[in-house]
Design brief:
Length: 321
């Protein structure tokens, strides 16, 4: 029977184990190193959490801003749509009441519109009817501008039979050069404001841009004077008649030089040429029966204007003849 032989440690074993423990000790992290590593792992996690919270705040802020913008745009759209409907109803009411052939242009001015309607008061409105059948000149444009309009006895949707108190009323008849020229027998007539007039910011001497009444430039061919060349004549405008409804054209002299036809007229023809530009235009009744206060030119149109304050009007009076 064989006895087992015990393994005896070799002389170099202890040295190798000690070396191995030393190597393991060099690569094992210390407690401080482990805490630092843990902090490094925790810091990115905290930064990510902060970014998420900031993103949520920004999204909420953008959402609120978008909601506010949408609400404002919606309110403006509702206000605009309401004003358009009110203008449409007023246009139809004027057409019906004044017996017009088509719907006139109507503008209710001032923003916002709904607060005006709620307090039964419009700040300003305009009515303009083009190519209206008119005595003597066949067609003319009727125009009215109203300021401070009371709606207490009416409605924000103005009816054809409404009575409207108006703080200030501007009323105009506008006759273009074509229709005025036909009436005067000068088919190529062109009308211009006085050349020497100092215009204000609106382009004329009145708030609505109408020139003065003296020294207007009328240019055309006065065939009735047996003169076949275009001439320019200085013309004064005035209102005459017991009812102040006749527009008078008074020629004063033949014009030559820049911005005119620059055509001289022989002495023996001058009186006849001037007489061709002399006319009286009756039955020019302003909308709502306002008395004329000025007359002049705007562009190539002749305009009669009347301004009054503190009146009550009805829509059927927009067209007087």
């Amino acid at each position: 029977m064989r006895r087992s032989r015990a393994i005896q440690p070799q002389p170099g074993d202890d040295a190798e184990r000690a070396a191995a423990r030393g190597r393991a000790g060099r690569f094992s992290p210390s407690p401080a190193t482990m805490q630092s590593a843990q902090r490094d792992e925790e810091e990115p996690t905290a930064e990510v959490g902060h970014n998420v919270r900031m993103r949520k705040v920004l999204i909420a802020a953008v959402g609120a801003a978008v909601a506010i913008v949408v609400a404002i745009v919606g309110a403006v759209a509702v206000d605009f749509g309401t004003s358009i409907y009110a203008e449409y109803r007023l246009s139809r009411a004027v057409r019906e009441a004044a017996d017009l052939g088509s719907d006139p242009f109507v503008a209710i001015l001032g923003f916002p519109f709904i607060p005006q309607a709620m307090r039964d008061h419009y700040d300003e409105l305009e009515i303009k009817a083009n190519t209206v059948g008119h005595p003597m000149v066949d067609k003319a444009t009727l125009e009215a501008t109203m300021h401070s309009i009371g709606l207490a006895d009416s409605s924000w949707l103005i009816r054809p039979d409404a009575k409207l108190p108006v703080g200030k009323l501007e009323s105009r008849i506008i006759i273009d050069s074509v229709h005025l020229g036909r009436y005067m027998g000068i088919t190529d007539l062109m009308v211009e404001a006085p050349p020497e007039e100092t215009n204000d910011a609106t382009g004329g001497t009145t708030e609505s841009g109408i020139s003065g009444s003296r020294g207007l430039v009328f240019t055309g061919t006065p065939k009735s004077a047996h003169f076949d060349k275009r001439v320019s004549v200085s013309v004064d405008l005035s209102i005459d008649g017991a009812d102040k409804t006749t527009l008078v054209f008074t020629p004063t002299r033949v014009l030559t030089g820049p911005d005119t036809a620059n055509q001289t007229v022989p002495d023996d023809k001058r009186a006849a040429v001037l007489n061709a530009f002399s006319k009286r235009l009756p039955d020019q009744k302003l909308p709502f029966g306002v008395a004329p206060t000025s007359q002049g030119a705007r562009g190539s149109d002749v305009i009669i204007e009347g301004i009054t304050e503190g009146v009550t009007i009805t829509l059927d009076a927009f067209r007087q003849s």
